[in-house]
Batch of 2 targets.
Target 1
Amino acid sequence: MRSTGIVLPSAGTCTKSMTRVSVKAMSNPKFVHLHVHSPFSFLDGASSIEDLVAAAARYGMPALALTDHNNVSGAVRFYRACVAAGIKPLQGVEITLEGGAHLTLLADGPEGYANLCRLLSRAHLDFPCGEPQVAETVLAAHSTGLLALSGCRRGEIPALLLARRFAEAEKAARHYVEVFGRDRFFIELTHDLLPGGSALNRSLAELAERLDLGLVATNNVHYRAGTDFPIHDLLTCIRNGLTVEEIHPERRLNAELYLKSPEEMERLFSAYPEALARTLEVAERCRPALDFEHCRLPSYPLPLGKNAAVLLRTLAYRGARKRYGQLNARIEERLEGELHVICSLGYEDYFLIAWDASNWASRQGIRHAGRGSAADSAVAYCLGITEVDAFGRGLLFERFLSLERAGALDIDIDFDARRRDEVSAYVCSRYGPEHTAWVATYSTFRARSAVREIGKVLGFPAAELDRLAKRFPHIAADDIGQALEFYPELRHPDFRRPEYLELYRYCAAVAGFPRHLGTHLGGIVISRQPLAEISPLQQAAKGVTTVQFDKDDVEDLGLLKFDILSLRTLGAVDEAVSSIRRRDPGFSYDRIPDNDAETYGLLRSAETVGVFQLESPAQRALQSRLGADNMEDVVASVALIRPGPVQGNMVEPYINRRQGKETVTYLHPKLEPILEKTYGVVLFQEQVIAIAKAVGGFTPGEADRLRRVMSKRRSMQEMQAIGGDFVTKAVANGVEIGTARRIFECLKGYAGYGFCEAHAAAFATTAYRTAYLAQHHPVEYFAAILSNQPMGYYHPDTICNVARSRGVEIRPPDINISGAGFAVEDGAIRVPLSRVRGMTGPVLQDMLQSREGQGPFGSFGDFRERVRAPADILVNLILCGAFDSLHPNRRVLLAGLREAPALKEGLFPDHRGTAGEGEKWPDFSPGEKRAYAYQVLGINTGLHPVASLRQKLAAHGCLSSAELKNVPDGREVKVAGIVIQPHRPPTRSGRIVVFFSLEDECGLTDITMFEECYRRSGWILFAGAGAVIVQGTVQRRGGVAVIANQVNSLWQTKNRHF
Amino acid sequence: MARIVDRPVEVTGAEGKRPDQFCWRGRWYRVSRGLDYWKEAGRWWAGEAEKGFLRVQTATGGVFEIYRDCASKRWYLYKVYD
């Protein structure tokens, strides 16, 4: 019996049962696949890594290689899957050489992996456009630790042999021997059952013999089983922009590139048994390449002679004196405790990096605010990274960091979206391109994208696919079948046409496959070690350098991520503040009082559209009932309207206790100081940790483990084990056993849904301050949030409507007044020219510069002489009324545009407009003007469309949102309006509840639709009805809402009045 | 030069092996040598089955491509080389 000598990796996730089965199966291994593509070959791999690894293990293979095209993005997932299956992961890659030839490389250990990363980095960064390519010199410079196989048919040697250029093939082989060494370069035989395959293998074997090179057999695996071939073919078609009926050399002729069993490989390679045996030798020579043991901490460039820990202490204390004034012993104790943990774990450089970035941003005037669990740190607060006083609020540092929970440190900072890129550019330049890169994302197929892309390959018309895809909610590609059963709007037989069902099956097969690498919204890794040794680097479409791993894989590799996030709200705040200061130079956003009665009044009125985090219908409903009158209410609000607390049924008890309708009790006196501020309800994760410490006597690390078991894993076994531990320790701590058990049950019931208080507090500060702006400076604030779209929950038109309902006039664009953004103008908001459909940056610049340089336009003709605007933009400017101040008749202006006849069709229903007869044209009616302006701007600048129907609606018995405010609870009503944001959040019972708002000329009406009604008529909301009439029952709980009994499209009512 | 025929042909030989001979236009051609073998998936989206192709030399020196349709298990003469 032959032993491979392969040693299993020692990572701890390998389960005993899997190891036992696999080792038994491995008693007589015959073959290992050394050339395998996964979906991380991006549209050239049709089986998941997990499926491939499981198949290899089932076949008794002791190892498996992963050799995706020019990337190692699947490496971490592959490693984990192999360890779990009890087989050895061999990390490799199929590189593309300069000129397009392929070459299969395997890393024999960490050094080889580092070289793999280096040469891939050069391939990507030196060839940022098109396919990455490894230059000959680069390959030679980074060949140490690599084993090379001559490649598939696209390899240099096989391609030359197929072309019968034997001498050149031999020369190429000799070159590879020089680069890698005779014992590290192998001739690869692949029996892919394509024409000429047998002859090619004979030529390759002869060449190997002549040069004394080893043969290895592979199957250039692209999918697990032959039945997966159609999926691979579809992906190939997507990659090459083909339909299935088109012929292309990239499309494989047959279904042979699957993960064949050792027996199948034996049959295929019966003439070359040594090629099979050598796969085992190659596998034996390779060690696992990835290093998961080390945390690769970043390094902050210190001034000469300075020590990072000392510098951090100095800065923290300097900041503390600024924040708190005089320091007392308790503050010092808190800072010392945090500094001890930070420095013991070696995170001082990371804190300095975060401090440096926020400090630089402050100096540049870039508004920012730390978020997430970093706000649990008093040091972060003192360094100016966060704005939450962790000490003052009594927040637990252990939620963020503890000695027992090293790794996974994550500081997230929001920056003004308009200037975030300046901060990331600063960070990248500060630490150098070798040490910084953006984190990648794996963009995967979802239902809509899969339907569109696969449907296109199968030849469905684009318009039909667009219609079909849009009807699906944002679900996974393999959830389409369930969705067809579940959602009423998808019950129509049309969705079940046989050709669609076939399409859905293919969609399900690619669910979760990465389609391409994307760039994380704000995650940047900074590493002391050159990043190109840990991950290949490449250039993203937006010009930044990224690693090839996503945030989870980056964390597994021991890299620390720093989230430089972009928040449009901060941009809006900055613009609003600048605008307010023009009127009130003394205004300071940072000194907004946190006890402003009118601001809390606004919250209680639930008129919070535009307020950060508090504007959704669910938040507005909460605000109308909660009765917020202090900052703690705002913090709780942010935490309460989340799927967890809503599903956990925490909202009702919280409101009742807050309102004094339910008695606040504590299971043990030790809980009172912890739960007092949340009325005895466990709302925050920090409270779970505090209870575990105070009642169970847990260490900070143990307490945080309890929090994590409850909030994430929720494995019953783990839960029972930690519960037993809690009760035992609580009893030892003097708590009666029954009480200890009840406390743990209570934690189990609530804590799983808890929210990080520090994060809630960080968001609450911005939420409250934006509410203050909305209350006291609505014109400036609404103008600013309109200028910073898209942001928040609502469409700009809804924001304009809300602003109007609060007395703010929305003025149409004016060619001599409007600018690039929404502007404040004598207590009104002026719509900008940038809002005009089709407007381009250069044309806008041209207009504004002309106005600035030569003064206002005197006439339409003057404008045309001074500005070179394309006809379609001119038409849209006319239609939205931008020239109304220069000419009273829009149709006359349009008639003068000779060059835009196509665009004018429909605007002149009876005659075609020509120059000269212009003055004969009567202007559009007010209704036409409104409709055209809405088409061009996407917002109403005049009468709301529902207002024009009000008389008819009233005759139909429909109330306006204003009238509804005076209707008593339980009354049957009809209301009508435009459907805003219908959504179906998860519920505890699993039953569907749809929430949406109806917008009319007076404001918003919130509608709740329960499952029965949804099943009957809910499909209308998701089928693009636009405007509806809702019949339902008024519900008054703080605010007013309607519980829907029936919904009809406004355009399909019985008498068709509308 | 070659021309495509793509017509069913009768063959003799053991199941699962290379045919010993095939009949085309009423004449039997004895296969003396297999020159190449490959598989083609065909138009799978239209329900076509996989085909196993053989390029063979006959005793008379002619070169032909024949294939077996894996679904119908029938043999076809695909191509004749001049």
Target 2
Amino acid sequence: MTSNGHNRSLVVIQLSGGNDYLNTLVPYNEGLYYDYRPAVSIEPEQVLKLDDQYGFRPGMEPVKRLWDEGKVAIVNGIGYPNPNRSHFRSMDIWHTALPEDIGNEGWLGRAIRELDPKGDNVLTGVNFGRGLPRALGCRGVPVASVGNLETYGLFPDMEDESLRKFALETFAKMYGGARGGDAVMDFLGQTGTDALKGADILRTAPAVYSSGVEYAADPMGQSLKSVAQVLFADLGTRIFYTQHGSFDTHSGELKTHAQLWDEVAGGIGDFMDDLKEHGREDDVAILVFSEFGRRIKDNGSGTDHGSGGIAFVIGGSVDGGMYGEYPSMKEEDQLDGDLHFNNDFRSTYSTILEDWMGLEAAPIVNGRFESFDLIKN
Amino acid sequence: MTTQAAAPPLTLKYAKTIGIVNNGLNGRGFAYPCDLAVSGDGRIFVMNRWDKAPRVGICNLDEDYVGEFGGGYGKDAGQFTLPVSIAFDSEERLYVTDEYLDRVSIFSTDGELLETWGAAGSGDGELNGPAGIAFDPDDNLYLVDQRNHRVQRFSRAGEFLGKWGSHGDGPGEFNMPWGAALDSGGNVYVADWRNDRVQKFTPDGCYLASFGDPGSGEGQLHRPAGVAVDGNGNVYVADWGNERVQVFAPDGSLAALLRGEATLSKWASEFLAANPDEKVVRDKSNLIPDLPLHLSSPYQVSSQTEPYFWGPVSVKLDGQGRLYVTETNRHRFQVYDVA
Amino acid sequence: MSSRDMEMMAHLMRRAGFGATRPELEEHVARGYEATVEKLLNPGDPHNLPDDVLRRYHVDMGESRFLDTAGAYWIYRMVTTENPLEEKIALFWHGLFATGYAKLNQARSLLNQIEMFRRVGLGSFRDLLVELSKDPAMLVWLDNNDNHNGAINENYGRELLELFSMGIGNYTEQDIKEASRAFTGWTLGNAEYMVTRSMKDSIWPYGRISWHFDFREWDHDDGEKTFLGETGAWDGDDIVEIICKQSSAAEFVCRRIFQFFAADEIDGEGEEVVADMMRSYFESDYEIRSVLRTLFNSDYFRSERSMYKRVKAPVEVVVGAVRIAGSYREPTLEAPQLASQALFMGQGLLMPPTVEGWHEGDEWIDSGALVERVNFAAQELRNVELPGVQDIIYRLAHMNGGTLTPAELVNGCLDLMGPIRVSDETREALTGYVARSGDVPLRDDDSAEESANRVGEVLGLITATREYQLA
């Protein structure tokens, strides 16, 4: 593998809604945890223990297996100064790498622009889901947003394949050719032609895919299967994005959080198996993040918006282990009733951009941040 | 109207508020509750209409959240799309109407789906937007057929027994009716929603009387959604469009008017205990503020005034002298003692 | 009625509204162009789908917590109103005074702001700016709740001058400070609690609590201020009054109105129209209605210089397709998806990306957005069950004896969808699509259904053309 990262891809999994840190990596030897969580805690005997202090919540067995193989880096206490506890705003901050101002450009959109400055490949970045996350948004950077890989492109609802083919040919004719010096019409023509081209290429991916891995039917499993299909089709995609949720567990957390992590951990486990089967385990890093952690104290049924969270970087080239400090739960160490973050999320971004993708991080994340040494060389 | 003895004076005393908003798929709290029914053992079954996770939630007057059921959002058996009303028959089977699916689903109190019936259409026994339901002592079901602008009577197995009403604003006619209730004599009361009145009928559907007329003054109604009748013949109306509850005496005079006075439920107190940053500023706030003129409609006032009813959709009496007012937009119900 | 009249009326209705169906256009043409402009400028009862019916059906439209249902509520208004300009001007002000959900977490108050735009959006610019300065969503959006006597926060004062009324270069930094002082104490009721909830996106314990304006006299700086050269103990109303007198304010608002309603770019002759609009602004005591009247009745607007010179905004694509297709006239389960569709195309209603609003013109278009535009509109128009589509089929079936050649069908569809003018290449491509299966017998019992479907396909393909992307 080259060290400039040309063969390396990044898969981002966004846990939308605010994943509860304390119930993800459980401090099962910490009495304060059980004191603050009379209704919403995980018993020590259920915890998948990593050491004598911390362990994963049940349901994360596939991630535990990867941890045992040394492929899981846990970033403890991740956050940013003056934490914002609003979903939209905090997610915006993660997406634009700008905690103080309202930004226009997504960090991954900027990364894509660096990876493919002329926009030669409309598939350098691919989002799985409808609507473009702000992280991928950047003026002039085309990113495909794929709801369903099988029907991606124009006229997905036309069931008669021959009719659809003919409609697409008509579209190609209508968008081909310049229009007598009208710049807007020419721009539309070029854009429409690009859209057709991108869709044609993407739709080939499922056809050439074969795997012994059976993904779960839930949206997380299916999204990661689509990632694998596009990845193995070698279309030059470097950044994949998908999200799962809702992790906004104000009520009934024990049940909802368990199901969500079943799906996320199961999807990650299957995806890593798929990578292994295709000999690509070392070419992919997965970043898992959420916009914030949750309150230390439960509310009797769930937990409310907090700060100080957990992120994961997972992959064959990742140097597994704990990074960052698990924040103290002592009252004097808390931040307004929340876990106090101790490392800026842009450190993790910088690590991925520099050490994994081979890009200069500072202009992308709006500053210089110390990296973690979590990529194997 | 038949002659009745004058009902004793009515007082309604606020007792408590139960609920908290729930924005998840399960657990304590309510998500756009649209109706409730009280079982014989005092458990309160609340129909939540939220399309992300419609379900029946169960709690008691001590504010324990004791369970929930339903197959989630959808069209399959046991699922809900747009649930409207719920009611128990004499054997404590819980009936749920769904105005999108045009069907009635029947559950045990354990949440087991026992039966479904109903077909879309405008013929006898067919449904177009089933809304309020109420049983008579013989377990005949009166069902408000919203978009057919009529009331239909069924056996509890769904066998068609009779109907009355058509679209219009004359006596016995309806415009998108919603809730229904029976009095001890088996007379039927229907919240004639878009005619701004409650109509009273004999068990066979002969028109007897009408309560309320359009407006926002005392004794006037705006889009009444729910109705209940106590043993003295007082008629409780969820005056949805005026964001209040009004009670008419049997002679049609106004016996009581409630605007709502919600306090913190047990669950709300637990939330604020876990979130002292909110409690501190909340305690310094005036939750019944003065509002500028352009925000003076009842809807706007309630949107700004947390203790008041907002979206009072259903009124229910439990036979123990308690009135339950379900508020869709506030995800709670307020309980009043009737004396 | 001439086809030119029809074409001009379709143009007016695309700009002053969201496009119109053929029966609507016929009614407007019969009334006449200038009379229709007056009707648009002086809205009566909108006859939109009533709030009570929507709130009964869509359970969240009461509390208005969710962005998609709040957006859908507005889209219902745009789809069913008989006063399209009332909604279009609200959309204009929403883009100019861009206030976004992401910071507020308060859709009800944003809808109240939109309602304010309906109420005063065609009236005096002075009234509009005063109401805007008292709008609680705006106050929180631009931090005026943190603008205190003796400790000013300039955010609202700055954007009021730069982005909302005059534009950079027409005032000094000192003017910003003085204006900000005048707006101290202009805040919202229970500001501390409301903003705490807003910052945490808290809906607890009992759902959203909507916002209202509050004046804290003790926190208001009533001292003397010098603003744009005028000195006095100004408060916010006085600041607005001084702004509205400025030629730069007239120019700012008239240019923005021109670009939204007439053409994305202002050319030399366009500048003359802007000058006329500015005259109307001053002659009418800053009345927006008068400014629009001047624009709509100008020769410029009623010519090729304006027609097809704007890229449709996503909301125009969504509402335009729905209005023509005749869907969503009644409460419809899928309505929240309409708001999501516009978002996927790049315009989230009630959620402009920043205080600068959306980047319009050809910036609406990228490959992902174009796919979303085409897929939505094509699916809507291909649905031959919808009443608007059926009306088009009915009208086509009563042309030329009911059997149309491919060219006749394409011309008929282009006419009934607009009229829309397209290039020869586009027309040929469409005709080629139809010609594959020959003539289209619309009144032949055996093939009427198949023929209707073929009409739907053509209508769908017309929404996919480059020309359809323009208004």
